[in-house]
Design goal:
With about 325 residues, the chain is of the alpha+beta class. It has 2 domains: about 140 residues, Nuclear Transport Factor 2, Chain: A, CATH 3.10.450; about 150 residues, Nuclear Transport Factor 2, Chain: A, CATH 3.10.450.50. It is built from 8 helices and 15 strands. Strand 10 and strand 11 form a beta hairpin. It is globular, with a radius of gyration of 19 Å.
Length: about 325
């Protein structure tokens, strides 16, 4: 199925938001959402119910802080959710919300300059309404752009991250179902390899099974972006596997694919215990990671991966409240 009706609804929702103001955004949100719309957001918003609550938590403060907001969308696809045996339909959008940072937002000082808020959205559509949304954004990335980054230097690169190298991520129309099935199967096999990574002789062998050698990994701020299997291992995988302990996989809420694109989110995906040095910080108590992964498949392997992690929630569970003015000396040994 093309899920065209669900796609058209989300595109109409986005078009209406483009013209919304802080005064009108509640009614704009209500036009396409169910009265008991379940919205999951990053820390400090967490879970909200209904258009008024979502507007009050995120959209009104955001639109007061950012002027001339544009949605710079890079990936858009839809599919049935494997997690509930393909019973529900979700639509995924990823890119940046770009605006002029003209007033404070969450205590972050404005710059008067263009600012790009990385985002990923998963919308569940039923009976012509958005009934459930997961909205992920990268607030540490925004803080870095504003010159107010609170953590030690990260292992990967800070970038305003581009969309797909192939520039074909906006699947507004129908696609070949077989292509989506292949993408979803590859993502599932890759997840299986992660869960059983000890069966491989080393991380290179594990990754080479499902990833192109020149893969791009567009990681969240706090970890950063990296390219190629060797640098991915050095700049993300090795720290992640050696500087956290007792990793528990909690499952996904939605996992789907269409064409060459697919992805998932969890709430939370993982529970981990950070050891000394992870993200340049001292060891801390156990915490949860709410994560989005979005992938581009090229042939029989994965070529690109965009990742969002609710870092502020993870840090807050460790007693580190970034939005309250917490910062770590950049000289902390990594």
């Amino acid at each position: 199925m093309s899920h065209q009706t669900e796609k058209d609804l989300i595109r109409a929702h986005h078009a209406a938001l483009h013209n919304a103001t802080s005064d009108t955004v509640t009614s704009v949100l209500a036009a396409h959402t169910a009265p008991d719309w379940h919205w999951r957001g990053m820390h400090p918003w967490h879970e909200q119910r209904g258009a008024e609550a979502v507007a009050a938590a995120f959209w009104r403060p955001f639109l007061r802080a950012m002027t001339r907001v544009q949605r710079r969308e890079d990936v858009f696809f839809a599919g049935a959710n494997q997690i509930d045996d393909f019973a529900s339909v979700w639509v995924v959008s990823m890119g940046h919300l770009m605006g002029l940072f003209d007033a404070p937002f969450l205590g972050i000082r404005p710059t008067g300059r263009i600012t790009m808020l990385r985002y990923a959205e998963f919308h569940r559509v039923a009976q012509g309404r958005i009934v459930e949304t997961a909205f992920f954004c990268d607030l540490l990335h925004l803080m870095q752009q504003a010159g107010q980054y609170p953590l030690p230097p990260q292992t990967g690169a800070h970038l305003v991250q581009p969309g797909p190298a192939t520039h074909d991520g906006l699947l507004h129309g129908p696609t070949d179902p077989e292509e989506g099935a292949q993408t979803l199967d590859l993502i599932c096999r890759m997840i299986g390899a992660i869960n059983d990574h000890r069966q491989f002789s080393g991380p290179e062998d594990e990754l080479a099974l499902h990833w192109h050698d020149d893969m791009c990994w567009w990681g969240p701020e706090g970890i950063g972006a990296t390219q190629g299997i060797p640098r991915y291992i050095a700049q993300h995988q090795k720290p992640f596997r050696t500087q956290i302990a007792d990793r528990a996989f909690n499952g996904h809420v939605a996992r789907l694919a269409e064409g060459s694109y697919g992805g998932f989110f969890g709430w939370p995906n993982l529970s981990v215990t950070p050891l000394d040095g992870f993200m340049g910080l001292p060891a801390g108590p156990r915490g949860d990671m709410r994560i989005v992964d979005i992938y581009r498949r090229d042939g029989d392997k994965l070529a690109e991966n965009w990742i969002f992690i609710d870092m502020l929630h993870f840090l807050n569970m460790r007693g580190l409240d970034v939005l309250a003015g917490f910062s770590v000396d950049a000289s902390v040994d990594q």
